[in-house]
Amino acid sequence: GVGEVDVLAVIEQMKARFNIDPTRIHLSGVSMGGMGAWTIGLRHPGRFASLTPISGQTDMFRWWGWDRERMTPFKRFLVEWDNAEELAPNARGQSIFVQHGELDHLIPVVESRSVVARVRALDIPITYFEFPGESHYIYWDTPCYENAWGFARDQVLAPSPTHVSLRCYSLNYNRAFWLTVERFKRWGTPAEVDARVSDDAAMARWGLQ
Asked: What is the pLDDT of residue 206?
């Protein structure tokens, strides 16, 4: 979408004008921006040192009350394309700290709880903090930013993890770290890859064999 184009363009403009460390570029956002942080970050694994979404949507079926099973396959494919939950495998190798208010009336806390559970079910580490008794507007005060940016400050991009997962819906989003998907078996069905560097390959890379 337009928002993603703008975010990536701003990053490139900043890199062109300033001495930016490419291993310390972080993505954060609140509310709709939280959704953006989820979506952009999970579409581009290997680009950001950390993701810190705050109070963001993660599933458009749940958000709009759409029945996934009653949708035509093509429409379902387009909705899934924007869903952080569908892109959960892409969290592998990334440093993510999620925050939400327990009593959020605008974007219910299930939006964060659900995707965090889905990521953890894949045995991918992820950090989650919930503000007890707080509403959507946790970002009107400083603690959520102190949490997010305190976390981000210590993160550095690891460009070559030994285990990479990728679920992609378009060849515009076909890379995860060192992994590239070059074609789809069938358009309208996401590509899914789970790849590991073998011990032998790792040893050869470092000249130990």
From this structure: 52
Nearest Cα to 164, choosing from 94, 109, 110? 94
Residue from 167, 41, 52, 31 nearest 111 by CA: 31
Asked if 89 and 43 count as a contact pair (C-beta separation under 8 A), the reply is: no
Provide Rg for the chain, Cα atoms.
18
Q: How far apart are CA 7 and CA 104, in angstroms?
A: 26
CA gap 150, 198 in Å, rounded:
34
- Read off the pLDDT of residues 148-187 as tens digits, 9 standing for 90 and up: 999 999 999 998 999 999 999 999 999 999 999 999 988 8
Model pLDDT, residue 1: 76
As a whole number of angstroms, the distance between CA 122 and CA 114 comes to: 13
pTM comes to 0.92
Torsion on CA atoms 88, 66, 110, 46, rounded to nearest 10: 20
φ, ψ for residue 158, nearest 5 deg: -100, 100
Phi, psi of 5 (to 5 degrees): -60, -45
Q: Are strands 97-101 and 127-131 parallel, antiparallel or unpaired?
A: parallel
Tell me the C-alpha to C-alpha distance, in Å, between residue 82 and each of 20, 25, 86, 149: 29, 22, 8, 25
What single letter denotes the amino acid at residue 9? Answer: A
